[in-house]
Amino acid sequence: MAIARGPVRALSSAMRPVQWLKNGLIGVAPVAAGVATHADVIRHTAAAFLCFCALSSAIYLLNDVRDLEADRQHPTKQYRAIASGQLGVGFALASALVLGVVAFTLPMLLWQPEGLYLILTLYLVIHLAYNFGIKHVAIIELGAVASGFFLRAYAGAAASHLYVSTWFLVVIAFGALFLVVGKRSSELQHVGAGATRRVLAEYSPDFLHSALTMSATVVVTTYCLWAFDTSYGGLSSPRHHMVPIRLTVIPVVYAMLYIMRAAEAGEGQAPEDLLWRNRTVQALGVIWAILLFVGIYA
User: Fold this and answer.
1) Hey, what's the torsion of the CAs at 277, 279, 284, 290, to 10 degrees?
2) 109 or 168: which carries more pLDDT confidence?
3) Is 104 among the domain residues?
4) Local confidence band at 71 (pLDDT 50, 70, 90 cut-offs)
5) Segments forming the whole domain that contains residue 268
6) CATH label of the domain that carries residue 11
7) Do residues 242 and 296 make contact, with C-beta atoms less than 8 angstroms apart?
8) Which of 48, 85, 180, 244 has the lowest tally of Cβ within 10 angstroms?
9) Burial class (CB in 10 A: 0-12, 13-18, 19+), 220
């Protein structure tokens, strides 16, 4: 039975604020560039964060309206605010429009926001295309979902006009693909082909295993190249302390191996669930963050 909610609580639930944690990727580029404490960078990063919170919530609302009937037949999605009838379709669409306007108005406060506008537009177009059909196209849907992570990370650089290493972009792109493939592998093991996503019927365990291995290999390889890169955009730039920076490779490799093992176990766990709940993965993440902070800011 759905918990009774007023209009404000129902709208808040439909906006999926818990998903705003993904927008933390916007801060990765400023942190890696060593400028995260600069006042103008903080302002630009905060604006980009708010833009993605508003735009992603608008897309969630549109998606729930479009999937209304399907969600009402789903064992858990039937309790969502729109599917349960606690949030009217008209009000949800109006809220999505307002949130979209907010997302595309905030960048006006920034200096030369063209790059951020391009990224927001790409995010909107890709996710609308996903909701209106791409999500049923095998392979393409993996890239569409992964693009959300990549564009968030790139937005942090674009908002503050930061130079980013090619290795940074590749690590983010394939790291996002790794998370999405791992999630599909977990879904296939838990609920079976086509039970909740039609596209799952297009994937085999062997294919997902190969895709997971490929993306993990690229992530580890390019992260090592980025960590050992001594050019201006590399993590081992002369501006940074090389030893702690290069030691970050260790927790990255162990975390990837641990996530792969868990994702491919008999009751595979989705990588994003491991990131939020598993103590070992969280501890490796903390070690990585400390080493990176010391290497860049100490």
Assistant:
1) 90
2) 168
3) yes
4) confident
5) 165-298
6) 1.10.357.140
7) no
8) 85
9) buried
